[in-house]
Write a structure and sequence with these properties.
With 406 residues, the protein is an alpha/beta fold. The chain folds into 2 domains: 185 residues, Ribonuclease H-like superfamily/Ribonuclease H (Nucleotidyltransferase, domain 5), CATH 3.30.420; 204 residues, Nucleotidyltransferase, domain 5 (2-Layer Sandwich). Helices cover 33% and strands 26% of the residues. The strands form 2 sheets. Strands 3-2-1-4-7-6-5 form a 7-stranded mixed beta sheet, with helices on both faces. The protein has a 7-stranded mixed beta sheet with strand order 8-14-13-12-9-10-11. α11 runs parallel beside α13. The longest helix has 26 residues. It is globular and about 70 Å long. About 10% of the residues have low confidence.
């Protein structure tokens, strides 16, 4: 699985009043920037600064596409909006039931930085409970923070307190990604009780087969896009087919072209066969993706290398168009291949090599067209599932994922 790029962030301010220098009071009134802390093992950064210009440096190409995790999104994004020059940056906010749950900072060169609230992600209400999620105990708050900002000789204690909170936010975000595949920016989908239902482990051969749930009802899907980056490129084609009790339902097929915002390049048209004429009158993503989600229903979602490609495209497209999301279950057909042939025992588990190992005929199938790819993938899934029924000690991970809200 690809490493998710995450940075924990916390901003502290001082209310600009000669009679009130309390840290981070959020009642009405102007606040002056005081300090910020950023932490990320992904980038090897762990720095504390009292200079606003250092915040601007975080919004560089080096950190493009990064996800910032904060414990006070509404407050922090307002401070950031005052620090970043409006001529270069714009901020988009996403709300759920009047609550800010995520934000995106974009610059003039189409780079994006995503901000998520750790409380919305986890469904928790305090940093003490966040600490419990990762098996830690939160450091006590310095008493003087309720009365005043720290003096110079008190800064080490203050910095240690802030660093610990930021590391907790970073740690819980990494845990969510490593355990469930994706960060989920909705308050409703990340309660602890719901998370337990989303991920299951199937550890015995007796539990692998089309005669048991959830493998008796699967939807295999595939996307074609204008490029490889889910942050910069767009969906242009989507196809899906249902598998019921091990039988591909060829008459229950979902397909649509998708209209992108930008023209399709010559290379992509040559590679996929999808031209600008095909998508000229096609539905836009915010119209077609909910229909795809309705088609999927409660089925187990399957795609080949979907954790690294298809699912991030769906998630980022929903973010881009402010489309609501819902929870679903997912398994990667590449992981089926790992179990059939051994993850490190063969050269590659890409779809072409899986087709060759299974000696599948591609007659009449147009590869790199979503319709052709989803048809051959569904055949491969059925064959690999049959092989796995004959093996012992197989462990398959079913992950939580997101689909557009219907």
């Amino acid at each position: 699985m690809r490493t998710q790029k995450i940075i924990g962030l916390d901003i502290k301010t001082v209310k600009s009043s000669p009679y009130n220098t309390t840290i981070d009071k959020t009642e009405s009134g102007e606040h002056q920037f005081f300090s910020f802390q950023a932490y990320s093992e992904d980038f090897g950064i762990d720095f504390f600064s009292t200079s606003p210009s250092d915040i601007v440096q975080l919004f560089s190409r080096q950190y493009g596409g990064v996800k910032f995790i904060t414990a006070n999104l509404l407050f922090d994004i307002e401070i950031i909006s005052k620090i970043l020059p409006s001529s270069r940056f714009r901020i988009e906010r996403s709300y759920e039931k009047s609550k800010l749950i995520s934000a995106v900072v974009r610059d003039n060169y189409h780079h994006c930085w995503y901000f998520y609230d750790v409380f919305s992600m986890t469904g928790q209400s305090s940093l003490d409970k966040i600490a419990e999620l990762i098996g830690e105990k939160r450091k006590p708050k310095p008493e003087y923070l309720d009365e005043r900002m720290p003096y110079r000789w008190e800064m080490p204690v203050f910095e240690d307190y802030v660093v610990h909170d930021v590391k907790m936010c970073y740690g819980v975000a990494k845990k969510l990604y490593s355990d469930y595949g994706l960060l989920k920016p909705t308050a409703s989908s990340m309660t602890r009780a719901h998370i337990k239902k989303l991920k299951r482990k199937l550890k015995t051969a007796q539990k692998i087969g089309f005669d048991i749930e959830p493998f008796n009802n699967m939807v295999v899907f595939d996307l074609e896009t204008t490029g490889l980056s889910s942050l910069r490129h767009e969906i242009i084609q989507i196809a899906a087919v249902r598998i019921l009790n091990g039988e591909i339902q060829s008459d229950d097929f979902f397909f649509s072209y998708v209209k992108p915002k930008h023209p399709i390049s010559w290379f992509i048209s040559h590679y996929t066969g999808v031209t600008n004429e095909h998508v000229e009158n096609a539905p836009t993503p915010e119209k077609i993706l909910p229909k795809f989600s309705k088609y999927c229903g409660d089925s187990l979602i399957v795609a080949h290398n979907g954790l690294n490609f298809d699912l991030p495209f769906i998630l980022h497209t929903c973010e881009r168009y402010n489309t609501g999301i819902r929870a679903a279950r997912y398994i990667d057909s590449m992981h089926l291949s790992w179990n059939v042939w051994g993850r490190h025992d063969v050269y590659s588990h890409n779809l072409d090599n899986v087709i060759k190992r299974l000696r599948m005929s591609q007659k009449g199938i147009q590869r790199h067209d979503a319709r052709g790819d989803v048809e051959i993938t569904a055949r491969c899934v059925c064959r690999m599932m049959e092989k796995l029924r004959e093996k012992n000690g197989v462990e398959l991970g079913i992950y939580g994922c997101v689909l557009p809200r219907v």
